[in-house]
Amino acid sequence: MHICLNKGSALALLRSLRAEEGGPDWTVCGVPDADPWPQKRWSRRIVPYLQLGRSESPSRSNPIEVIVPEVSAEPRASFFSVRTCDGNLPPGSFLRVTSEYTIPCPELLFLELSEAMDRAALELVGYELCGSYARNAADPRTGGVTHGIEPVTSVRKIESYLDRCPGRRGLAAARAALRNVRDTAWSAMEAIVSLMLVREVEDLGYGISEVTLNEREDFARELRGRSSAAVRIPDISLNDLPIGFNYDGYGHLGLGSADVSSLGEIGLGAMLAAMREKYVDDIRRNRELLAHGRIVLPVVAEDLVERGGLDAVVLEAVLAAEHLVGSSGDVGARVRRALANDRPARRQQLIWSIYPWHAGPSLGAY
């Protein structure tokens, strides 16, 4: 069989492929006809649904989203949600990724998802596509995340693609979401913090649009021979202030995976030594970045979960900048406006809705 997936089904397959060793391998193609060959007709049993992060075969209530070249090519099966490819699309819009599946290119996928996702969820998908991690196909909100992989697109590529799709459905929503996406996020949590920073105050962010993720900071020559590293890379750097942020979650220092009860004395000693080594490296990193002119504030999981926690961290960053350089400029003004009226309470609801846990509101399976 072969069919072209769309929207959430295509995203799930892309996540599965990115999590595999070597990542996705694709060939540019057109939109294929839905073909059940070697079977004569479509049935649930011939669809490899496990690749899509599903534990059960598709159904009318939980269909697989697909796209076909024309109405006459629509598969006759109730477990597909079908869209016809309308209008002219830029070259390279579809990619054959397995023997069974074609998907939209990452840029078109972002556009297609703009009709199906809450904007904040779409923004996080943008970070993922432009970043070095992939969420879990079966459980994207709370499942395990694959790190250290290559991005499949960039903000500039998505922007260029959207410019070549005038009048297409979802274009305005996709462009609005893309304004809050930044390249080179290394983790889903880093992306959440960045998203809250760059979102406009009216959209419950802090209005700090000028941020850069994971940018190398080279040290002065006289420090290089005395430093423990030639460069340091803060998770998030504010371009207009000498401030950065590093996210240190529950897995930091290996604490999240530590099973002390199963370790003997030697194993426990090795674990504590590794934790100490990481802790010392963190201290030196922050010290070396400070010598380079940038203060890095750690952000911990509790800052996102507890009411007003991230508000406090961002305000601390503004106050630190004011003490260091005498002013926080427009950044400080926007942050203080973000902390006024009922915005903090509404912002916390948004944070809870995108935080990877089962509590709080949900923006859907993003």
Please render the helix and strand layout as text:
Elements: E1 3-4, H1 7-19, E2 27-29, E3 64-68, E4 80-84, E5 94-96, E6 101-104, H2 106-113, H3 119-129, E7 133-134, E8 146-147, H4 155-163, H5 171-178, H6 188-198, E9 211-213, E10 217-218, H7 221-224, E11 231-232, E12 236-238, E13 243-248, H8 265-291, E14 295-300, H9 301-305, H10 309-325, H11 329-338, H12 343-354
Helix pairs in contact: 1-2, 2-4, 3-5, 3-6, 4-5, 10-11
Written overview of the protein:
There is one protein chain. With 366 residues, the protein is α/β, with parallel strands linked by helices. Helix content is 37%, strand content 13%. It is built from 12 helices and 14 strands. It has helices spanning 7-19, 106-113, 119-129, 155-163, 171-178, 188-198, 221-224, 265-291, 301-305, 309-325, 329-338, 343-354; strands spanning 3-4, 27-29, 64-68, 80-84, 94-96, 101-104, 133-134, 146-147, 211-213, 217-218, 231-232, 236-238, 243-248, 295-300. The strands form 5 sheets. Strands 1-6-5-2 form a 4-stranded mixed beta sheet. It has a 4-stranded mixed beta sheet with strand order 9-12-13-14, sandwiched between helices. It has a two-stranded parallel ribbon with strand order 3-4. α1 crosses α2 (106-113). The protein is globular, with a radius of gyration of 23 Å. The mean pLDDT is 90.
